[in-house]
Please model this.
Amino acid sequence: MATIAVKKRKPVFVNVEDLKPGTTGHNLIIKVVSSKVTRAHKTRHTSSSLSQRSKPPSHIAKCLVGDNIASIVFTTYNDQRLPFSFFLDMIKLGAIVITRNAKIDMFKGFTRLAFDKRGHIEVANLQTS
Model:
């Protein structure tokens, strides 16, 4: 059986000012302007309390990210998909982050950058001051 090679398209990067609520599939190169890390609150599930103890505490970071034109709020979680060291590198002040297949959500009347299962985020090798 012959395999068909799928030709991938080159990503098209957009500016933050061009993002509209409810849209998906955005590729961005953004810089972390500010970030604040907090611990996630544990829920009180009596049936799964033993499994909750074995998991490390998760952290939530609310970051203001942007390009040279506009900025947007991005909330990220340290979950099983991201190693904690990558999580800390990603939210470091001045870090350049490349996002692929990002989506734009509305929360309390403000736009937020978010990811679903097809989204991908990586830290660029560049560092600016």
